[in-house]
Amino acid sequence: MSSTEQGTSSAAPAEPTTAPESAAAPEVPESFYYVHGKDKVVHKVSAGALQHSALIHGMISNLGYTEEQAKANPFPFENIDGDILQMVVDWCNQHKGKPTPPEDTNLPKQKEKLFDLVLAVNYLEIKELLTYCCKQVAMMVKGKSPEEIREIWMIPTDAEDEAAEKEAKKRAGKEAAGETAAAAGDAK
Amino acid sequence: MKLFKFPYLLQKEVFDNMEYQDLFLLSFISNKMKKTIKSCQANRFKSISFIRYCGMNKRTFVDIVAKNHLKEDFVEIKERDNTKMDYFQLKLFGKIIDFRKSRRDHIFEAAFNPDESESVIKSIHNYMLQFFGDSLEYIWSTSDWVNTVPQLQNLSPSISMWHVNPDLIDLENFFSTNPPFKMIEFQPTRPINFNPGSKFYQAETVVTLQHNNYFPSVLRHFQGKQAFVHCTYHNTEDFIEFVNKWKSGEAFRKLEVLNFKALGDDDIDHETVLNGIGAKHIDARKTPPTHTLPKM
């Protein structure tokens, strides 16, 4: 299992030359958590960055993990591809503690990557990023003709929808018949 | 990317970020898509205040005005431009119509051949009724007093007639060949008397701006609900007579609002007017009295 150290800052603050007039409250050290996707690559992310994700924020809010415990128990997101999780982690780090801008131009332009990103962001409940992604998906078809939109979003024709519906009905009928036969067999 | 693989809420979020013209195009892709858009955009469609057709017969812009007053361009319906042929065809209520996206300003355009404008507008209108719903208000807003307004379901026409010379155009005939207007903005160059039964007087609202005292003739047999009169010069006696006819029920029995504004230096003599119309001071803290028109 490899690991990346995302969002860590090793630059130590400079020592103050004179004592401040009123002593500031000691800074609470930032806590870190670990997540991995389908590729098992572990990403170290600060709790501050993870606040963007309602799902993860809910999971960690009452954990009280020590650094060691957190490292030993990375959150597995097996349904998210490694490169997509990397994008999500990068976005969370980049927008940690900052107000989110109205536009985000750094989203992937390739439609399959964007599709996976939307699903991942939806699962992780990152509201702002989801809004950007859906805007980007909408922009993909702006100014396009219906046939171009059909191609981009892979929308079936009415005939294909009808055929799929017939097929689904047929399958459901067969399954129901199978269940009835099995139930009759059990009764015997 | 398969859009239908997205959960319903994601599809809705994507549609929420699309302009009406793109949703309209999207609705032609399949019946399932049209149904999905109508279902998940129902609240957005409810936020529409009205859909407005603006322009003349040769060129009509359609825009969508929301209840928060924001306006969105929807489609421009214009005569076919044969120099560029990058049209795609869509079938609306059995009629095949050419559409394209203008490269210059990204406005969605529908084209018609000469003499086909009305049938193209009708097909687009019928599709919009089905797509956005027939409970919305559809307004035809024009300043064309030569061609007649298309007679379409749920369409309320409104017309601006500034500096219209009654000697050059048969206004009586124009109003008789059109459905009653919802609103008429009217500035004649001379006093004009319509027949008592003229459809001009059936307008719900008349706004008249005049530099001379023409309003008594313009509103003589008015049967609508609202009248807005802006005069540069006026005659106080005419105004008092108008209000008293209204109060007594002798005329203007459907009138609910009268707004009379004196423009320029010719200010209203308030005391004469208030005495002449028998105005009474109303205490703003009390329920205002009601005025019942006498039966005629």
UniProtKB/TrEMBL annotation, chain A:
Transmembrane portions of the chain: none
Reported function: Probable essential component of SCF (SKP1-CUL1-F-box protein) E3 ubiquitin-protein ligase complexes, which mediate the ubiquitination and subsequent proteasomal degradation of target proteins. Regulates cell proliferation during embryonic and larval development.
SKP1 component dimerisation domain ranges (all copies): 127-170
Recorded family membership: Belongs to the SKP1 family.
Biological processes, Gene Ontology terms: protein ubiquitination; ubiquitin-dependent protein catabolic process
SMART domains: Skp1
Pathway: Protein modification; protein ubiquitination
Keyword Transmembrane helix: no
InterPro entries xref list: SKP1, SKP1-like, SKP1-like_dim_sf, SKP1/BTB/POZ_sf, Skp1_comp_dimer, Skp1_comp_POZ
Gene3D superfamilies for this protein: Potassium Channel Kv1.1, Chain A
Keyword Oxidoreductase included in the entry's annotation: no
Keywords tagged on the record: Ubl conjugation pathway
UniProt xrefs under Pfam families: Skp1 (PF01466), Skp1_POZ (PF03931)
Protein name as annotated: Skp1-related protein
Record-linked SUPFAM superfamilies: POZ domain, Skp1 dimerisation domain-like
Region annotated Disordered, chain positions: 1-25, 160-188
Organism listed in the record: Caenorhabditis nigoni
Positions with biased composition (Low complexity): 8-25, 178-188
TrEMBL record, chain B:
All residue ranges annotated as the F-box domain in the record: 1-48
Domain of life the protein comes from: Eukaryota
Matching InterPro entries: F-box_dom
PANTHER family found in the cross-reference section: F-BOX ASSOCIATED DOMAIN-CONTAINING PROTEIN-RELATED (PTHR21503:SF8), F-BOX-CONTAINING HYPOTHETICAL PROTEIN C.ELEGANS (PTHR21503)
Name used for this protein in its record: F-box domain-containing protein
Source species: Caenorhabditis nigoni
Encoding gene, per UniProt annotation: Cnig_chr_X.g25449
